[in-house]
Amino acid sequence: MDPLQVLPTALSLPADSPEQIELLSRLKDHLEQQPTPLPVLIPPLLSGVLASKDSAFKRWLTDLLQFGLSRSSLPYETKALLAVQTLDSLYAFINDPSPHICKSGIQCLASAYPHLFRHFCVNRTNRTPWDGLTQAKRRIFAFIDAPHNAPTGLVVAAIKFMQRVVIVQSRGLQNKSDVNLNMCPPDHPFINARELEAEGVNLLQQILGILFSSQNPEVLSATLNCLVSFIKLRPVMIQPIVASLTAWTPINLADLPSSEVKSVEKAARIVLVHIVRHGYGQQYQQEINEALTTQQARMDTAARDELARKAESSRKRVLSEPFEEIQPKRARTDAEPVSPATTTNGLSVLAAFDFTTLPHALVTDLVIANLVAVSQTKLEAAVAAHRQTNPPLQSVPASAPPAEYQDAPATSKAAASDEPLDPLKMELDEDELDFEPDKFNSNLEGEGRPDEPDNEDNNMLLALQQVEFELPPARPLGHEEKDVMIRQALDRIRIQGEETTGTMTALPDLDDVVDIPKPILGLPPPDAWILFMVRLATRGPAADHSATSEVPHEHEGSWLTDANGIRRLLCEYIMEDFSSRARVATIWMNEEWYNDMVRREVDSTWQPQYDIWVQTLLQAQRAKLDAKDKSFTRFLMDLPALPPNLLSLLRDLCTDVDVMAVGFTGLRELVQARPTVRQEAMQILLDLTTHPDKVIRGAAIITVRRWVPETQPMDRIVRRYARGMLNRLTGKTKSTVASTNGHASPVDTGSEKPPRTEGSKAEVESEEDDMAISSYIPDELSLPAEKSVVLQHVELLLGLAVKVHDFLDQIFETYCQMDASTQDVLGSLLVPLVRTLGPNNAKLLDLLRTFRPEAESLALKILTILTENSRPTPAIVSLVKGLLGERELDPRFLTLIIAELDKTDVVKFLPRVVSTLNGKPEEREQVRKVFSNIVVDAPVGVSTNMPREKQNERLAPAELMVLLHDQEKEIGLKSAMEAIGICFAMSDVFRSETLAVVMQQIVDEPNLPVLFMRTVIQAVATYKNLISFVTTTLFSRLIVKKIWTNPPLWEGFIRCAKVTAPASFGALLQLQKEQLREVVDKQPSLRSGLREYVIKKERSKPKLASFLETLGDGGEGSGSLQDTPAATPPPAPMPTAVSPNA
Fold it and tell me: In terms of DSSP H, where are the helices of 802-920?
């Protein structure tokens, strides 16, 4: 078979046809035997089915991919290549709406994860697929975090995937077949082994936590099966596993059937026994043995309880079965001889035991259990043997009948032929009941003693048969006696029905059993008693009397005339166990509905009973509802007509957190199965999607979201309502929409309005229709908007947008019309949705590329969410760069992608990023992260968006600092000062030697920046070892450049000289006299220090006299130097109010 020829043939057949499925199955069998073509066939086929719906071909392709990645005989390199080629397709599969495709995608990723990890450890240049794999992990783990919202199959597959992740992200042996963290080099550019190992530990704890939180037996069994692989491949994990298994008990499984609890218990026991047998945890053997003993005792107790329950059920079944006609059995001739010694020993043991010491209930249960266990043949043989050894008492023989009956036959017979028949004696027809007591008694006697015929008894029977006997007429019963008799009969019918109904619950499906008669009106034969009681109330003598409209609380009058008394008896019986007797209630209500319909045709004054008793059942059951019981919903769906207040009842149930599952399930079924009330039920569900309570609102959203996008007309109604609630956030109401388009407004200003065109009229009608109504939200939105109120408006739409991406257009469009406070709140609520869609969503990227200017803040918020926990994808980098080239954007857009730009673009765009600094801590932290990403030596421990891969594309710390000074005008002095302060705060990057290089480069520039001297002062205040460099090399260069010609820099020079004194005295003496005099005039505290320095250093008396004169000293030895000249003007302020240490 050539796959390249067979595959086109299969695709040409009708989709999902039996022929196509058969051909694909044969092709799959061939490829499993010869998997070599798989890497060539699968990748191009996957790209063609990603956007298609679930189909047989799509399932066939995913199953084939899973086989190729896991069980095929392909080499490791080929599997790794196949995994890398299909990685993008697997991302799409885990987001597929079909549970089968999603499950297959998770299973494929579980098989591919070791291959992908090893591939990325070796190929260190392409980071984008690894980031996508990380996003896929989060998506799969979400199924485990919210198991109630996902099918069990998806949860089990996610647990298997988590198991594979834990094994890979832990330390193992140096084995090529065992992929683990030891394969990851420590200097890997984008795989952090420590983070992955920590994540693996957390995932293991999450798996163990499932044992104590889940109530699903399948999930628990899958979790326990995962533990065996951990113990075998990672023995270091045995300690937490043993601790969890020994502490586990099935306390959360109390509501499950015993068989399911027993299955989970066995799975846990198998894991513990596996640990002991294979010697994985010798140090925990005693602890495990104690746990096994405790578990065995727990399982034995559960087994005894279950046996007692079954024995009780069997007892009821045996007692309720009618006696069959006993046939004489022939003596057994093939019985094996019983050993006398065995019999003697057994009898001696039983004889020595005092049975009177046992409780009566236990003795009864033991007897019944043994009777059930004994075969019918052995029981009959034992009865026959007992009758032989213990014959009954002999009756007195009679040779002739009594004298008073000898002449009776002829006379009675003749009289009977002449008299008319009494109707009271014809209640039962001969065809209906053939009762022959003489024959029945003779059979019993013959069966009791088959081997001992009694001639005297035969003679007695023969004599009795010759007697023609008639019972005397029955005594007429009084009215009360008839009432008591009927009531007792009804009680017996009810009791017998209860026992037989309980017995029938253990029988197989009636359709699969040939010997059991078919049910009547949906009821099995043992339950047919209900028809008698129902029809006694609706069609019997009592039904002919007029019924009251109210339910009686006591039996009044006769049972022959009180139909409501019979109904009340039925109601009480049903309400004792509604979940198992809901079917009886359904039959009753259908009979009442039919009876009302028939009676109204005959009697227009007939008081309907159906509505009365439906309401009675509903109200009685409402007080005892259980959220997990589905019988109430089935009862509602099977009603022939819905009561008037049913919808209000279901709405009340939905707002009760304890039983809201019953209410939402009922409304959902009404929407799907009852078109007559669909509109009203849909309106209730949609109204509840805006409920203030988050739990109720979430349940309503989950209920209506199942109809989107494929179930009509519910899909259309839900979408319209979600859009309408979003439109309400614009602050417009129907009245305001009408007034702004030409309608009369509530307040008439008297101004003329332009005429309205046909287009505007259609627009008004569309806007009015899109305004949804909610009973839980005010008509007008109060400003500033509150987060809880906005969430009530948009939570439904945000939940739908995950599946229907067209809602994103509506969000962007409506955002432009919202108030600023509403926009801020909506932006914060978009975080879960944006993270779910991810950075590769085509619809989201298209909107970010074409958003309106009014939605710029929304686009910035979305991009921030997409990049806050991971590096920007190439698509986002390209998108933002394109936007920057087309329009003038907020500089904060640049902070998101600047770490991914080359050095030329960084230098170009960095001033715009730094200009966003405004003194707020949030902006400072954002710029600090940008600096950490664009400089070569990123500080250790700083949380960034991952390091850049190309070191030569990053700026040196000195380059960044020089750039901040050179671009101070474009940035702004205040923002530049704040940015330089951020650099000083990054002390592990901007060290003293880096600052020395910065100052050296800047001082060599022809034009010095205004902030240069401020930076010098801050540098010497931070690093004292820079004082020597500044006061010698730097000051000398500044004096040569005549720094006093630039007043701001000259002021900074003087302040720096004061900060570095006395090391700066040598450089100050290089100044001209005018500048030196200005220095001491502005900083008088330097005068005395300079005078002492000059006296010590200067040997030439003329120069000494000149310096002293410049410093304000009149002679060499004079002690009248003026240290503080009067009326010294204050120095000019520096361009900052920040201290040097800031």
Answer: 807-815, 820-829, 831-837, 842-850, 856-867, 874-886, 892-897, 903-914
Find all residues with CB under 8 Å of 257, minimum gap 6, and list them: none
pTM for the whole structure:
0.50
> Looking up tokens 């010798």, which residue turns up?
282
Angle between helical axes of 856-867 and 874-886 (0-180°, round to 10): 150
Q: What number of helices (H) and strands (E) belong to the chain? A: 55, 0
Report whether 964 contacts 971 (CB < 8 A): yes
What gap in Å lies between CA 808 and CA 904, rounded to an integer? 35
Q: Please say whether the beta carbons of 582 and 589 come within 8 A.
A: no
Taking the C-alpha atoms of residue 967 and residue 980, their distance in angstroms, rounded to an integer, is: 12
Distance of CA 38 to the CA centre of its chain: 35
Short-list 68, 103, 60, 109, CA closest to 88 = 109
Query: Taking Cα atoms as reference points, which of 116, 124, 131 lies closest to residue 870?
Result: 131
Number of C-alpha atoms within 13 angstroms, CB side, residue 524? 19
Q: Which residue has the tokens 């513990």?
A: 272
Distance CA 309, CA 306 (A): 5
Cβ atoms within 10 Å, residue 1045: 8
- Structure confidence at residue 540 as a pLDDT band (50, 70, 90): low
CA dihedral 123, 124, 129, 133 (to 10 degrees): 90
- Report residue 361: phi and psi, to 5°: -65, -40
* pLDDT digit string, tens, across residues 1068-1094: 888 888 888 888 888 888 888 888 887
3-state secondary structure of 940: coil
Q: Which two tokens stand for residue 469?
A: 């006997």
User: What is the 3 state secondary structure string of 549-617?
Assistant: CCCCCCCCCCCCCCHHHHHHHHHHHHHHCHHHHHHHHHHHHHHHHHHHHHHHHHCCCCCCCHHHHHHHH
Q: How many angstroms separate the CA atoms of 137 and 132, rounded?
A: 9
Residue 230 region by backbone torsions, left for phi larger than 0, else alpha for psi between -120 and 50, else beta: alpha
Q: In Å, how far are 919, 944, 978, 986 from 925, measured between CA atoms?
A: 11, 11, 12, 12
Tokens read off for 310: 């079954």
Helix (H) or strand (E) holding 305: helix 285-320
Average pLDDT over residues 381-407: 59
CA dihedral (1063, 1069, 1072, 1076) in degrees, to 10, reads: 60
Place of tokens 């067209």: 806
Contact 1046, 1008 (CB under 8 A): yes
Cis amide leading into 18 (omega within 30)? no
Could you give the dihedral angle defined by the CA atoms of residues 715, 721, 726 and 727, in that order, rounded to the nearest 10 degrees? Answer: 120
- pLDDT tens-digit series, residues 208-257: 988 888 888 888 888 888 888 888 888 888 889 988 888 888 888 888 88
Instruction: Say how many CA atoms lie within 13 Å of 979 toward its Cβ.
Output: 29
Q: Any residues with CB less than 8 A from the CB of 764 and at least 6 apart, and which?
A: 737, 738, 741, 742, 743, 756
CA nearest 366: which of 378, 385, 350? 350
Cβ count near 798 (within 10 Å)? 22
Tell me the pLDDT of the chain averaged across its residues. Answer: 76
Residue of 703, 620, 688 whose CA lies nearest to 648: 688
User: Bridge-partner residues for 955, per DSSP?
Assistant: 935
3-state secondary structure 749-817: CCCCCCCCCHHHHHHHHHHHHCCCCCCCCCCCCCCCCCHHHHHHHHHHHHHHHCCCCCHHHHHHHHHCC
| Whole-number Å distance between alpha carbons of 488 and 164 | 67
